[in-house]
Design brief:
InterPro entries: CHP02678. Pfam families: DUF2398. The chain has 416 residues and is α+β, with helices and mostly antiparallel strands. Helices cover 42% and strands 12% of the residues. The chain has 14 helices and 14 strands. The chain has helices at 9-21, 30-38, 40-51, 93-108, 114-128, 144-166, 176-180, 193-197, 218-222, 239-252, 271-283, 315-329, 339-352, 364-377; strands spanning 23-25, 54-58, 63-67, 80-81, 89-90, 111-113, 170-172, 188-191, 255-256, 287-291, 294-298, 337-338, 381-385, 388-391. The longest helix is centred in the middle third of the chain and has 23 residues, at 144-166. The chain is globular. The termini are far apart.
Length: 416
């Protein structure tokens, strides 16, 4: 049995940060960056041997980059945006396409004005959009509909710039929030070619022969580590493939189902697999709760995960905790959960606490969907169909205690 490569105590925090965000920048976290550079060999060996991920350190770019390749990319995960003060949401496909187009243009010219960037992207999209290769990107219009499309294109481009600024790939010389509200505003966008080059995590799409494969197989092919002779030969997982799949889910997801492994004996059910998984989790400084049908891995420090559940006092988070408590109290906690049952729960809560979730007074179905979405994000519910969810075995790991404010004593009248 292979021995898990241990991590020095000073490398655990940088490793967890890399698992959560995929990068450490010198200007944003000098201490973690310095530790990662000094311990590069140990970090590189750990990620390569235990997770099959490559660690790239380029000191001239002052960036440490972990290339996390996963064939089972979570559909609900990706760059998140916050616009107009609303809750953060996943970036759209159009925004992600613009991220790639911005990087392409800045690779050619590392310093461009926003107007120049818009014109260059519009030319590329105009050539590819008719065949469906790229989205429409309209920047000039005269009629009402065209103006709306041009406005949307500009906002999408600003969102793409926000994502690239947040990850440290580019910099701008003006406030993006202000530019987003001005149709004629301009700024200068600058990029580091070294950092742009470090964004690529897959092998060359051309060499992988993606044009010869159906789109459903692109993700699996893009996640391979070596170029195969036959681009169609990515079907039967080996024992090593199953090990990497299990390990990546444990450290990268809020929860993992051992039974997702379709082999007669799932990897995490084997004594060797279970022991190695626990050692990898401990090496990173995570905490694991394991059952035969469910593993939940958490980071007590909060560094190695972008999940903040159950913290927060928003109505949606409170509703999610109330729903989790109610699910556990049902005669069959794993039974299918419908929205009518959730709405009925919140009606009972509001009967006791009339001022709770006042903003949702006439919109309890919306609150029910928001609460369910919170639990889906942490692997406690799985959506089945519209407004229907399946609780996972992870619900058994939680016990919720609801504290209600004490009732104010009323002054008793006195006889005089």
């Amino acid at each position: 049995m292979s021995v898990v490569r241990a991590l020095a105590p000073e490398l655990r925090e940088p490793a967890r940060r890399l698992v959560a965000t995929g990068r450490i920048r010198a200007e944003a976290d000098a201490e973690s960056y310095r530790a990662a550079v000094q311990g590069r060999r140990q970090l590189t060996d750990f990620f390569r041997s235990e997770l099959g991920w490559e660690l790239e350190i380029v000191e001239s770019a002052e960036l440490v980059r972990l290339h996390k390749r996963r064939a089972d990319v979570p559909a609900d995960r990706g760059p998140r945006l916050r616009r107009d003060g609303r809750d953060a949401h996943l970036a759209s496909k159009d925004v992600l396409a613009l991220v790639a187009l911005v990087c392409e243009q800045l690779w050619r010219r590392p310093r461009m004005s926003l107007r120049e960037l818009m014109q260059a992207i519009a030319q590329v999209c105009a050539a590819e959009a008719p065949t469906g290769g790229l989205p429409q990107f309209r920047i000039v219009a005269t009629d009402g509909t065209g103006k709306s499309e041009a406005r949307t294109s500009r906002l999408n481009l600003v969102d793409a710039l926000r994502l690239l600024v947040a990850e440290g790939s580019i910099s701008v010389d003006a406030d993006l929030e202000r530019i987003a509200g001005q149709d004629d505003g301009d700024l200068v966008v600058s990029a580091s070619r070294e950092r742009l080059a470090m964004k690529f995590s897959s092998l060359s799409p051309t060499l992988l022969g993606l044009d010869d494969l159906e789109p459903e197989r692109h993700v699996a092919v893009l996640s391979v580590d070596v170029l195969a002779d036959d681009t169609t030969a990515y079907d039967e997982p080996t024992v090593e493939d199953r090990r990497l799949l299990a390990m990546r889910r444990l450290v990268d997801d809020p929860a993992a189902d051992p039974l997702d492994d379709q082999a007669p004996m799932p990897y995490l059910h084997t004594p060797a697999g279970r022991e190695r998984a626990l050692e990898v989790v401990a090496a990173l400084g995570f905490a694991a709760t394991a059952r035969r049908d469910w593993w939940e891995v958490t980071d007590p420090s909060g560094i190695g995960t972008l999940v903040d559940f159950p913290n927060g006092r928003r109505n949606e988070r409170q509703a999610a905790l109330a729903l989790l408590d109610a699910v556990n109290l049902r005669p069959e906690p794993r039974a299918v959960l419908g929205i009518a049952e959730v709405v009925e729960l919140f009606e009972r809560v509001r009967t006791t606490l009339p001022r709770w979730a006042a903003a949702y007074e006439h919109r309890l179905p919306a609150l029910a969907r928001a609460a369910a979405a919170e639990l889906v994000a942490v692997g406690l519910l799985v959506p089945l169909r519209h407004d229907t969810w399946q609780p996972t075995p992870g619900v058994h790991f939680w016990r919720v205690k609801v504290h209600q404010p004490a009732a104010q004593p009323t002054e008793e009248p006195t006889d005089r």
